[in-house]
Amino acid sequence: EEAVFLRKKITLVRAFSLLIGSMVGSGIFISPKGVLENSGSVGFSLVVWFACGLLSMFGALCYAELGTRITKSGGHYIYILETLGPLPSFLFLWAEFFAIRPANSAVVSLAFGRYMLEPFFAPCAAPVPAVKLVSLLGYYAVLTLNSWSVTWSARLQMVLSIVKLLALALIIVPGMMLLAQGHTENFQDAFDRQSLVLDKLPLAFYAGMFAYSGWFQTSFVREELVRPERNIPLAVIVSVITVIVGYTLTNVSYYTVLGTQDVLASPAVAVSFVQRAFKSLISVVPVLVALSCFGTMNGGIFTFSRTLFVASREGQWPPLFSMIHIRRHTPLPAVMLMFPLVTAMVCIGDIYHLMNFFSFSRWLFIGLATLGLIVHRHRHPEQRSPFKVPLFVPVSFTIICLFTVAMSFYSDPVNISIGCAMVLSGFPVYYLIIHRQMSISSFFFPLSDYLTHKLQLLLEVVQQEIKTY
């Protein structure tokens, strides 16, 4: 009896919790090993962590301005579409669906499974099949919740954001106490240049930026935000500053307690930290870390489903995925679409190879999105944005992103080449379907209208009835 559309249910507090909940996840608990391994020393790794935070702030500010200029949801996809055109936006959508998002979700899911099982098998490593099974169960639970209710997904994100900050505090406090007592031996020769390998630095930045990734999440749900012109910039600035401070102190605590070799040898750095510093909490912290990863999975599913929803609405994805459940008011088909690819990547993937695999494509398109901000300013000088950053911010962020992407070919040519091939494979699909203005569903399925109708009845979904942008 009521109109079917996505409601504006994301307040400032929920936007803040979405950002914190997406950024503070598996990254800070698994990335320290990757950053240290590729930066070569404690001092350089801390510099990388701070630089990644600063770079994330630059990117977040660019996206905050884009979010006030472009009123549609969809994040990277819609920004590239509106500023650079349909070809690069479709290539992003293609790479995001088949590589970036499932690999990212698989990394977070595997971290969730590893930390959830760690207390039961310590001091031994948890069996890999058990880790993968628990990882999939966690992912499916979040998938079900996002299919059921936007409100409950947002509430869960708020609760888990508090859990995440508590988990960081339990690592920071004992480390700072030991540091205040004079335990600085692990910081001797912190900037050892002999172990620095410049061509590995892009991989160190990939690991660090993976930990910060999530600062762009409000841009995916722009149409569901309350007062977006005010709340997007405010939520972005507060959340990124909070995470930069938290991550820097967390890494200092890691090195104070563990040292270089222990961090490199640990498959789960936070667990090793607790074993050394806080044995009484040996079973608590891994569970908190697992819940942090759970929150990141929730935020990822919540936001990426909106990308597929908008892409379908723009005609670059099958029409079924722009439909909304008639009672739940959730984009049910878009939420459910990812689970086969994520399942496959969890079953066959390894965390660090997956991280390098999807990081290339992700940072390439984020760099293109901020390049689009520069283009949009040039094309529409008359448009007044309620939030505007100095020009050097998008220029410097874009240059750093594209330079890091180019350098990564020297650092990890195999995984980066696979990621590049995945992006390029979208070219023939675009020119066969989108460029010729064919229906993407008709191209793949001669009986697509019939199948869409049957699935629409089965899932109880219809097209959005009210324009929200």
Q: Explain this structure to me?
A:
It is found in: Membrane. It comes from Chionis minor (Black-faced sheathbill). Keywords: Membrane, Transmembrane, Transmembrane helix. The chain is mainly α. The protein has a single domain, classed as Amino acid/polyamine transporter I (Up-down Bundle). It is 72% helix and 1% strand. A two-stranded antiparallel sheet has the order 1-2. The protein is globular and about 65 Å long. The two termini are 23 Å apart.
Secondary structure elements and pairings:
Layout: H1 12-23, H2 27-39, H3 42-69, H4 76-84, H5 86-121, H6 128-148, H7 150-180, H8 201-212, H9 228-257, H10 260-265, H11 269-277, H12 285-313, E1 323-325, H13 332-336, H14 339-348, H15 351-379, H16 392-411, H17 413-424, H18 426-434, H19 440-444, H20 448-459, E2 461-463
Antiparallel strand pairs: 1-2
Helix pairs in contact: 1-7, 1-9, 1-12, 2-3, 2-8, 3-8, 3-9, 3-15, 3-16, 4-5, 4-15, 5-6, 5-12, 5-14, 5-15, 5-17, 5-18, 6-12, 6-14, 7-9, 7-12, 8-15, 8-16, 15-16, 15-17, 16-17
The average pLDDT value, as a whole number, equals 83
Strand content bin: under 5%
CATH topology: Amino acid/polyamine transporter I
Q: How many E strands? A: 2
Tell me which CATH architecture applies here: Up-down Bundle
Spatial arrangement of strands, main beta sheet: 1-2
Instruction: Name the CATH superfamily assignment.
Output: Amino acid/polyamine transporter I
The CATH top-level class label: Mainly Alpha
Poorly predicted tracts of residues: none
What's the story with the biggest beta sheet? 2 strands, antiparallel
Structural class: mainly alpha
